[in-house]
Every structure is written in C-alpha cells, then in structure tokens.
Amino acid sequence: xxxxxxxxxVTLHQASAYRVALGILGSxxxxxxxxxxxxxxxxxxxxxxxxxxxxxxxxxxxxxxxARSLIRRSARRRxxxxxxxxxxxxxxxxxxxxxxLQAEEARVRAMLARLPxxxxxxxxxxxxxxxxFREVGEVIGSTEGAARVNYHHGIRRxxxxxx
Length: 163
Known about the structure:
7 helices, Rna Polymerase Sigma Factor, Chain: A
C-alpha cells in the first residue's frame, strides 16, 4: 500500500483509537502504547480486512483488543504523567474558567471510569466518536441491541451520579 495512504489512515483515525484505548486503560501512557500497537497490528493485517465492517470500526476493535491485552499482560501501575497540562491553560479562556472546565471534565471522566467497561465504551464511542449502535456493538464485541442497552444504562447511571 502507498505510504502516503497509510499515513493518511493513521492521521484520520489516531485520535479516535487513542480515546478508545484511554477509555479502557485510564492511563495516557498505556493508551498511547495500545493505540500504537493496535494501529501497527491493523496496518500489518490490512490484507485480512474483509470489509464486513467499516475500516474505522475494524480498527477501533483491534485497538480495544490491544488495550485489553495490555491489561492482561501487565500489572498496571498508577503514575501521574510528567507532561500533564497545567490547570487554567485552556486557549482563549480565562484562568478561572479554564480551572472550572477542567474540574468538571475531571468529574465526568471519574464518573465515566466507574462504569463497567462495556457501558463506558458504549457511551464514549457514541458520544465522542459518533458511531452507530451497530458499530459500537462491533467494537465492544456485542450485538447492536446489547450496545444500545449498555449505552442507555451507562447514560442513566451517569445522570444519577452527576445529580
């Protein structure tokens, strides 16, 4: 395959793949590793892509599987990343507004992290990535109906916790 086309595929899907891995792992460093490994695995296996699902869904499923494999392979350590953004540095916003937004985002992320994996992924893939329920089901390894149920249960729990 053309190197420019491969580069375009990576550029197009890298952010989505990273968010899926981050949703599973919760660690930015681990998510970066899983994203890179999953994308490499997908690109190496590109000849095996049958087209049963969209390329994006296929790739996200591979990255999700890679993230789960990383969990199984290692005893995860909780470490704070060294390059974490400084509070209040949101571009175009005042320091106070940036701090409030970061606090709210952290609160929602903490609540999201408490959800069971399939519910968490269903919510993230629907909200962040805009995937259909069929595509969500393919990524999380369930049916379209189960993806709908996981999404709705996840949203209901988040609403309860955030009240």
